[in-house]
Hints:
The structure holds two protein chains of two kinds.
Chain A: E1 17-23, E2 26-32, H1 38-48, E3 58-62, E4 65-66, E5 83-88, E6 92-93
Parallel strand pairs in A: 1-5
Antiparallel strand pairs in A: 1-2, 3-4, 3-5
Chain B: E1 2-5, H1 6-20, E2 27-33, E3 42-44, E4 48-51, E5 54-57, H2 59-72, E6 74-82, H3 91-95, E7 105-109, E8 123-127, E9 133-135, H4 138-141, E10 142-145
Parallel strand pairs in B: 1-10, 6-7
Antiparallel strand pairs in B: 2-3, 2-6, 4-5, 7-8, 8-9
Amino acid sequence: MAAVPEAVNQPGHAPGFEIVVSYNGVKRDIAVLPQETIKTVLDRAIAAFGNLPNPHTLSLFNEGGELPDTSTVGDAHIHPHNELVLRPGAVKGGAA
Amino acid sequence: MIYVPRLILEETAEHLRHCGRGIHECQVVWVGAWARPHRVERVVHPRHKAHGGGFQVDDSWLTRFWYELSARGEGVRVQVHTHPAEAFHSFTDDEFPMVHTPGFLSLVIPDFGAALPCLERAYLAELQNDGRWSEAKLSSKINVEA
């Protein structure tokens, strides 16, 4: 269970809640605030999975696609217990 | 050590040769349940675009696959792809893997998979803690079971 940020209880802030982020089939509970940016949630998710190397290549997605870093949790219509996936922005390979 | 049933290797050969037709690269991933973290249990053939010198996994397919892994309690253990000739880990292979967890394995198969299921000239790379890839001895990381 992830700790809810202290800002949750401060006046003037909407209450926080937990979502689920999965990475390669592993799930972690992540505490978020509606006014937080997706970039903040992304950084928290990467840390929850052990500070993955090359974090600049990772993004958060829902069924609709990639969530823009500058959107807020509220703007992205993320609700309690929603599941987001943490995955690379592109997967490719090859000899050329 | 990752344990891979021979049937998985044979299915891998079928995907890589059938999809690549000896002219395109191709990728499959080896998947297993997190309850049995050292075992590969199925082969997944991602939807992708490919040409003679590379491939790219379809973006929306990857998101659906990530949700599927979460629902099934599974994870990708090894990514496997072909090269047209020599097997090595290219700059693109280094930069755009499916999984970024240290210890993740990437197996490169030469000659569009012509010699599969023989892995004699295959190249195995392992992701290090600092994000770089190093060559790994195949026999010390992957055990193909009868």
